UniProtKB/TrEMBL annotation:
GO cellular component: cytosol
RadA KNRFG motif, short sequence motif: residues: 264-268
InterPro entries: AAA+_ATPase, DNA_repair_RadA, P-loop_NTPase, RecA_ATP-bd, Ribosomal_Su5_D2-typ_SF, Ribsml_uS5_D2-typ_fold_subgr, Rubredoxin_2
Protein name according to UniProt: DNA repair protein RadA
Pfam families, per database record: AAA_25, ChlI, Zn_ribbon_LapB
GO molecular function terms noted in the UniProt entry: ATP binding; ATP-dependent DNA damage sensor activity; damaged DNA binding; hydrolase activity; zinc ion binding
Protein keywords: ATP-binding, DNA damage, DNA repair, DNA-binding, Hydrolase, Metal-binding, Nucleotide-binding, Stress response, Zinc, Zinc-finger
KW Repressor (keyword) present: no
Chain spans, region Lon-protease-like: 363-467
Gene3D superfamilies (UniProt xref): 3.30.230.10, P-loop containing nucleotide triphosphate hydrolases
Similarity section: Belongs to the RecA family. RadA subfamily.
Residues that coordinate or bind ATP: 108-115
Lineage: Bacteria, Bacillati, Actinomycetota, Actinomycetes, Streptosporangiales
Length: 467
């Protein structure tokens, strides 16, 4: 029998049926695929790929535009200027202040001081216009008690205890705030979305609704986010892509120092850092925090070395301490605090191989002072000198700093911003610096010693004992 002929309209329908296929989307990063897979091909997360509907390969019908396209030279930028928050360290990180209509995500561990920082910021901004603080974790009376303790009371600061995005939108409609703070995005829920509050679907829908509300009304919005046990922001990764600014607030709970870092910033630098001190009466900005990272002592002690690290654009004086203690245990201990454990192990291996120091029969402890975390390669030389000083029981001369990256061959490599680092060290009273060769920037008041390898650095640091 001859094959049945298909009419043109029917063929068109069949063609559209073939073109319209279900797509699958990762709830974490947004990666799409035409077939279901158990593991995302982009972020490698398991069980996050969900069906997201049909993908039609045909054309898209034009729709009414929300606003006409303009030449870039005619776009108004007056409404995009940043407004100062009243907290200098926060403005430094944001690049000058909070931009109207921007959406900020502030993440940090529990108890680090996120709510305290935002409550003081809200009270400062309330002097210019209404501010709405929505809490989903506490009652309004509990937030009021903390505000009284911090002295953050203002009649234009409005508090609301809500968990529904719809109810939050009602508060925004009645108050018309210039700043909206949501503490936290994981406790809010969207009535039209499935899942429980804090789940992937709910967090994505809540964030999308708040972003639409912020952009439509030109309201600066700050979202508080929880973090997981490894320090990353909880919820879908797409949350970080949707917002304009991602801030990380961290610090050692046993230390009053808190560091605010800009992980992502569409309106300013993304490598800036702000320093705060958390006290019983609130949180205080530290424009000059270098003194917190040094130990005040009368005489030099073996196993310590001072260096200058650059956090964002700010040079900071920091002290590295090391203890090398002989042991008969078959597996010596290796403990670090504030330093990268892998990089510390590399420095120990370089000292043993290139400088002849036996490290395999000793427990080794390395840490920083003041709870600061040092991950920059310029800290390598200071760590190596601290380990060598503890191993030989020799103290570095007073007023000496060291900075430089140490390679596997024992060479000391150049680092950026040497002049800025030396100027900061000279300002705090240091008189000598061991730096990589050809990096001896002339800074008045401080003597620089250029070294090419670790052996030269050890001879310059411990002139009383060669090698």
């Amino acid at each position: 029998m001859p094959p049945a002929r298909v009419s043109a309209p029917a063929a068109s329908v069949l063609g559209m049926a073939k073109a319209a296929k279900s797509t699958f989307r990762c709830a974490e990063c947004g990666w799409t695929t035409l077939k279901w897979v158990g593991r995302c091909g982009e972020c490698q997360a398991w069980g996050t790929v969900e069906e997201s509907g049909a993908a039609v390969s045909g054309g898209v019908a034009p729709a009414r535009v929300s606003s006409p396209a303009l030449p870039i030279t005619e776009v108004d930028i007056e409404s995009a200027h940043a407004e100062r928050s009243g907290i200098d360290e926060l403005d430094r990180v944001l690049g000058g202040g909070i931009v109207p209509g921007a959406v900020l995500l502030l993440a940090g561990e529990p108890g680090v001081g996120k709510s305290t920082l935002l409550l003081e910021t809200a009270a400062m901004c309330a002097a210019r216009g209404p501010v709405l603080y929505v809490t989903g974790e506490e009652s309004a009376s509990q937030v009021r008690l903390r505000a009284e303790r911090l002295g953050a009371l203002d009649p234009k600061l409005y508090l609301a205890a809500e968990n529904s995005v719809a109810a939050l939108a009602g508060h925004v409609e009645s108050i018309a705030p210039s700043l909206l703070i949501v503490d936290s995005v994981q406790t809010m829920y969207a009535p039209d979305a499935t899942g429980v509050p804090g789940g992937v679907t709910q967090v994505r829908e809540v964030a999308a609704a708040l972003i639409r509300l912020s952009k439509a009304r030109n309201i600066a919005t700050v979202l508080v986010g929880h973090v997981t046990k490894d320090g990353s922001i909880a919820g879908p990764r797409v949350l970080e892509h949707l917002v304009d600014v991602v801030l990380s607030f961290d610090g050692d709970r046993h230390s009053p120092l808190r560091l605010l870092r800009a992980v992502k910033n569409r309106y300013g630098p993304s490598d800036e850092i702000g320093c705060f001190e958390l006290t019983d009466s609130g949180i205080i900005g530290l424009p000059d925090p270098s003194g917190l990272f040094l130990t005040r002592r009368n005489e030099p002690v073996p196993g310590t070395c001072v260096t200058v690290t650059v956090e964002g654009r700010r040079p900071l004086i920091a002290e590295v301490q090391a203890l090398v203690a002989p042991t008969n245990a078959p597996q010596p201990r290796r403990t670090t605090s504030g330093l990268d454990s892998a990089r510390t192990a590399m420095i120990m291996a370089v000292l043993e191989r290139r400088a002849g120091m036996q490290m395999g029969n000793a427990d080794i402890y390395a840490s920083t002072v003041g709870g600061v975390r040092l991950s920059e390669p310029s800290v390598d030389l200071a760590l190596a000198l601290a380990l060598a000083g503890s191993k030989r029981d020799l103290a570095l001369p007073r007023g000496l700093i060291a900075l430089g990256e140490v390679g596997l061959a024992g060479d000391v490599r150049a680092v950026n911003g040497v002049e800025r680092r030396l100027a900061e060290a000279q300002r705090l009273g240091f008189t000598r610096a061991i730096v990589p060769k050809h990096s001896e920037e002339p800074v008045p008041g401080i003597e620089t010693i250029g070294v090419e390898d670790l052996g030269q650095a050890l001879r310059a640091a411990f002139p009383s004992k060669q090698g």
